[in-house]
């Protein structure tokens, strides 16, 4: 898979999580046509990049914490190192 396709998916996950906390890993996997494992890998990558996406038990989905500042190191820079 292209790093740029993954980067696009990571960015879209951030946007989804900031707009609608009802998206579960299963729903994200179905939307992006990837496995749930791939979504969990993506969420771990976002956590490692200090993007605070957390699971909301009430809505049974992922959300971006309020007032989030994107870290100085961009996701693309982090992905280039791997």
What are its keywords?
82 residues, mainly alpha, Arc Repressor Mutant, subunit A, two-stranded antiparallel sheet, 55% helix, 10% strand
Structural topology:
Elements lengths: L2 H17 L5 H8 L3 H13 L4 E4 L4 E4 L10 H7 L1
Describe the structure.
The protein has 82 residues and is mainly α. The chain has a single domain (3-81), classed as Winged helix-like DNA-binding domain superfamily/Winged helix DNA-binding domain (Arc Repressor Mutant, subunit A). Helices cover 55% and strands 10% of the residues. It is built from 4 helices and 2 strands. The chain has a two-stranded antiparallel ribbon with strand order 1-2. β1 and β2 form a beta hairpin. The chain is globular and about 35 Å long.
Mind telling me the C-alpha Rg?
12 Å
- DSSP helical segment count: 4
Distance between the termini: 14 Å
Helix and strand succession?
Answer: HHHEEH
Largest β sheet strand count, sense and barrel closure? 2 strands, antiparallel
In CATH, the homologous superfamily goes by the name Winged helix-like DNA-binding domain superfamily/Winged helix DNA-binding domain
Structural class: mainly alpha
Detail the poorly predicted runs: none
Average pLDDT across residues? Answer: 87
CATH class: Mainly Alpha
Fold-level CATH name? Arc Repressor Mutant, subunit A
Strand segment tally: 2
Brief sketch in words of this structure:
The chain has a two-stranded antiparallel ribbon with strand order 1-2.
């Amino acid at each position: 898979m292209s790093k740029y396709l993954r980067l696009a998916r990571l960015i879209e996950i951030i946007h989804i999580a900031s707009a609608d906390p009802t998206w579960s890993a299963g729903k994200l996997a179905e939307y992006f046509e990837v496995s749930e494992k791939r979504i969990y890998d993506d969420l771990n990558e976002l956590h490692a990049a200090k993007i605070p996406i957390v699971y909301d038990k009430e809505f049974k989905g992922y959300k971006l914490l309020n007032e989030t500042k994107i870290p100085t190191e961009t996701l693309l820079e982090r992905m280039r190192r791997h």
